[in-house]
Design goal:
Pathway: Nitrogen metabolism; (S)-allantoin degradation; allantoate from (S)-allantoin: step 1/1. It contains 14 helices and 19 strands. The chain is of the alpha/beta class and 507 residues long. It has a domain of 335 residues: TIM Barrel.
Length: 507
């Protein structure tokens, strides 16, 4: 019997070892579907790596989804696989803090799968989804859960979520705290009609209430800063017989004074609510509005501001009659305004860039009718923002380091993502490799992954800067014009506990 037991034991051990090996191998094979690379520990080398210390010739070590080290030159062991991008630029992946993915509820406009595929193909490694244009809007714990559930196994990049500040929750401190405790990275509000029925506008009183709650959590309030001043300015009115196919007609309905008035109201609200951060989205007016923002910052208020590539690439003078692809709000303004936006951006007065990717179905753009006053407003742009920014920006002297500051470093801080946005040891291995001098035509033959590319204002443009590869958490999610077999991006939910007023006073 003793002999039989010793004969059986090796067989049992062999079977057990085989099962363990099978489970491990199966798990590793399943995980490998997340990446176009077959390994988890490797080097990425380039002669142009954009780091906080400048552009270096060297390599980035990736291990287990994290940047394990950054070295100059060829000082890395040859025993580990190397992915060499030569003269291509390697920099942190873009972080887009302002995009509308429209799922659930309006997936025919855009969705998590199509939107994040486009993001990956455009070098974007993190998206923060806006709370409106999906249905229902993300204004409660329940609707945030719907968002997270809808994103499950569909996202190719990491995705976080802003919650909505609207009249129905603004005076309900418990509801706002629950939404933030559930993981919303901050809140978003409109100071003018949003165009979405379940996302009504807020006034300064609502904003003050929201800021008092956000201050406890140290999370931002993002604001669409336009206030309607003239009761006769109505987007659904034919402006007293003016040509509705003329962009100038639409431009007159949303003057810069709307932005100025909103910023003045925000300034007052911030003075009464200390400790909260306000972020102004998609600034289009580079004159008085920007001067007011500079004053607010000089006075020590916690304020940041973004603009978008379409305000930097286009001017109102070039928009043809009836071409409603260019309609957005605030509107694209004059050429002189565009130049001043670039100057302010490169001088540091505008903090960051975002896409404000706001798609729709083509029918809502009324392209055949060409009515600027009735067409849906929004620029479809998600996949193109890196080459657009570079193509137009280098004419103004934009550097690679500035590009990273505007598209990675500062957006990461706004969204509270302190392990993203820079190529440094310990950060997430979220990276993009791209060719700054490689030109391409953005036409019907160009492979675009977000929905309805024909309605994008960028179609027909020749751009510089082609994305070669995008890494998210060390996974090569896009390369050689194809995506990884599985969508393995992670939902980003804020987990920090709130910081209460007495604790702020002690700090």
């Amino acid at each position: 019997m003793e002999v039989l037991r010793w004969r059986i034991f090796p067989l049992v051990f062999l079977i057990f070892s085989f099962l363990v090996l099978y489970i491990k191998t199966s798990s590793k094979q399943s995980n490998s579907d997340c990446s176009l690379l077959p390994y988890e520990h490797y080097w990425i080398s380039s002669r142009r790596i954009v780091t906080p210390e400048g552009v270096i010739n060297g390599a980035v070590e990736v291990k287990g989804g994290i940047i394990a080290s950054v070295v100059k030159g060829k000082n890395f062991p040859g025993s580990i696989p190397v992915v060499d991008y030569g003269d291509a630029v390697l920099m942190p992946g873009l972080i887009d803090v302002h995009t509308h993915l429209d799922e659930p509820g309006r997936v025919e406009w855009e969705g998590f799968s199509s939107g994040t595929k486009a993001a990956a193909a455009g070098g974007i490694t993190t998206l923060i989804d806006m709370p409106l244009n999906s249905y229902p809007s993300t204004v409660s714990v329940e609707t945030l859960k719907l968002k997270v559930d809808a994103a499950h196994e569909k996202i190719y990049v990491d995705v976080g979520f802003w919650g909505g500040l609207v009249p129905e929750n603004a005076f309900n401190t418990t509801a706002l705290e629950n939404l933030l405790n559930a993981g919303a990275l901050g809140l978003k509000s409109f100071m003018c009609p949003s165009g979405i029925n379940d996302f009504p506008m807020t006034n300064s009183t609502h904003i003050k209430e929201g800021l008092s709650v956000l201050a406890k959590f140290k999370r931002p309030l993002l604001v669409h800063a336009e206030v309607v001043l003239d009761s006769e300015s109505n987007l659904n009115h034919d402006s007293k017989g003016s040509d509705v196919r003329s962009y100038e007609t639409y431009l007159r309905t949303r003057p810069p004074t709307w932005e100025e008035a909103a910023i003045r109201e925000l300034q007052e609200a911030m003075q009464e609510t200390r400790g909260a951060h306000v972020h102004i989205v998609h600034l289009s007016d580079s004159r008085t509005s920007l001067d007011l923002i500079k004053d607010v910052k000089r006075n020590g208020a916690s304020l940041s501001v973004e603009t978008c590539p379409h305000y930097l690439a286009f001017s109102s003078e070039e928009i043809m009659d009836g071409d409603t692809r260019f309609k957005c709000s605030p509107p694209i303004r004059e050429e002189a305004n565009r130049h001043k936006l670039w100057e302010s951006l490169l001088d540091g007065h505008i903090d960051m860039l975002s896409s404000d990717h706001s798609p729709s179905v083509p029918d809502l753009k009324l392209l055949e009718e060409g009515n600027f006053l009735k067409a849906w407003g929004g620029i479809s742009s998600l996949q193109y923002v890196l080459p657009v920014t570079w193509t137009y920006g280098r004419k103004y002297g934009l550097t690679l380091s500035q590009l990273v500051t505007l598209w990675s470093e500062r957006p990461a801080k706004l969204a509270g993502q302190h392990l993203k946005g820079a190529i440094v040891t310990g950060n997430h291995a979220d990276l993009v490799a791209w060719e700054p001098d490689l030109e391409f035509e953005l036409d019907e033959n160009y492979k675009t992954y977000h929905k309805h590319p024909s309605i994008s204002a960028y179609m027909g443009k020749r751009l510089s800067g082609k994305v070669l590869a995008t890494f998210v958490g060390g996974n090569l999610v896009y390369g050689d014009e194809k995506h990884a077999p599985r969508a393995c991006g992670a939902p980003i939910l804020a987990k920090e506990r709130p910081i209460f007023a007495k604790e702020i006073a002690v700090e």
